[in-house]
Amino acid sequence: MTGDDRVLVRIRGASVNALDWHLMRRLPHLISMLLGMLRSRVRGADMAGHVEAVGKNVARFKPGDEVFGVGLGSLSEYATTSEDRLAAKPRNLTFEQAAALPIAGCTALQGLRDKGQVKAGQRVLIYGAGGGVGTFAVQIAKSLGAHVTAVSSAANADLLHSIGADRVIDYSKEDFTKSGQRWDVLFDIGANRSLADCSRVLAQNGKHVFAGAPHGLWALLSRLLKAQLMSRSGSQRIMFMARIRHEDLVTLKELVEGGKLSPVIDRQYSLREVPDAVRYVGARQARGKVVISVN
Ligand SMILES: NC(=O)c1ccc[n+]([C@@H]2O[C@H](COP(=O)([O-])OP(=O)(O)OC[C@H]3O[C@@H](n4cnc5c(N)ncnc54)[C@H](OP(=O)(O)O)[C@@H]3O)[C@@H](O)[C@H]2O)c1
Q1: CATH classification at residue 272
Q2: Residue (of 1, 6, 16) closest to 75 by Cα position
């Protein structure tokens, strides 16, 4: 292990994110170059497991503790990280379930609570509700007291109602941008509708928070540019990248232990099957999270 500030984790569960798919595609485009600094020989970030060893400056954890969080190269048996990016594992989750939480859970939490500033009684629309981030977002918006509309394919309707969505819009049958309805916060993970279309559904002072990245470099750059221009003109468009922080992991743990948040797991793979797991996530049809069991 390297570094006095590092924590070595023996991984028991990991999960796959869209970012892992982007990094593994090895496309020679700018995103890969920009993300190059994140590349390691072994991929993955989300993890849960036991603390194996700690550097001398680490105060929060000791060997044997059960933890979850983010480390570089979590699709493997061991990874190191800093204590700021870990928290004690929720008592009522398996390691695989806990590993589903960090990136997708922090994205949903920060997008709704911090960027969207969702308040009780507000109307929130989650676009792209059926996936990893979306299934956390529905539950977190509910826990903040919002009235939640989830946009997804019909196949996910029962699941989304069961985790708290008040209303589910099947995007193959109804275009939410033409419904005439308004929402206080549009949490946009689907990322394939134009900013102008999304503007139409915002209530007065409504916020369009987008975390999703359109597939394709030019679509992404164009969206970033437009969002930048619009935010300068005073509109409430917020694009953000989630940060993994100890306090937010603790909030997720408390929500889980309080029965307000539960990871939705679509598929579980073994470490040997990671390429299949990443391909499945890349197809963008996952229902909740895809996790890896590391035994
Ligand atoms: N900003 C950040 O910090 C951050 C962090 C994590 C993820 N992200 C981004 O957020 C997005 C979602 O991540 P994720 O982990 O939730 O991905 P995911 O688990 O792969 O989500 C896939 C979901 O997207 C939905 N979807 C696919 N095509 C759609 C369409 N045409 N219209 C509406 N929904 C569609 C699917 O639902 P249906 O079955 O209903 O089609 C599926 O459930 C990705 O772009 C990812 O890169 C950003």
Answers
A1: 3.90.180.10
A2: 16
**CA 189 – ligand 1 centroid, Å:** 5
147 plus 135 within the same structural domain: yes
Q: 15, 8, 17: which is closest to 95 by C-alpha? A: 15
Give 88's strand partners.
Answer: 67
- Ligand 1 atom, smallest distance to 191 CA: 45
Number of domains in the chain: 2
- 3-state SS, residue 189: coil
| Contacts for 41 with CB less than 8 Å, ≥ 6 apart | 73
What pLDDT is recorded for position 233? 57
Q: Note the helical H segments in 144-282.
A: 157-162, 195-199, 217-232, 246-257, 274-282
Q: So what's the pLDDT on residue 36?
A: 53
Identify the residues whose C-beta falls under 6 Å from ligand 1: 17-18, 103-104, 107, 128, 130-134, 152-153, 156, 171, 189-192, 211-213, 240-242, 281, 284-287
Is 93 inside a domain boundary?
A: yes
**Taking the complete model, does pTM exceed 0.85, yes or no?**
yes
Question: Is 72 inside any structural domain?
Answer: yes
Specify the CATH number for the domain of residue 163.
3.40.50.720
Beta bridge partners of 202: 183
Q: Which of 209, 236, 202, 258 is nearest to 90 (CA)?
A: 258
Q: In what order do the strands lie in the sheet with 202-210?
A: 167-170, 147-152, 123-127, 183-188, 202-210, 237-239
* The two structure tokens encoding residue 293: 């069991």
Beta bridge partner(s), residue 268? 291
Instruction: State residue 67 phi and psi, 5-degree precision.
Output: -135, 165
Same domain, 78 and 117: no
- Closest atom of ligand 1 relative to the 134 alpha carbon: 16
Stretches where the chain sits below pLDDT 50 are 28, 37-38
d(CA 73, CA 25): 16
pLDDT value of position 35: 54
Would you state the pLDDT for residue 31? 54
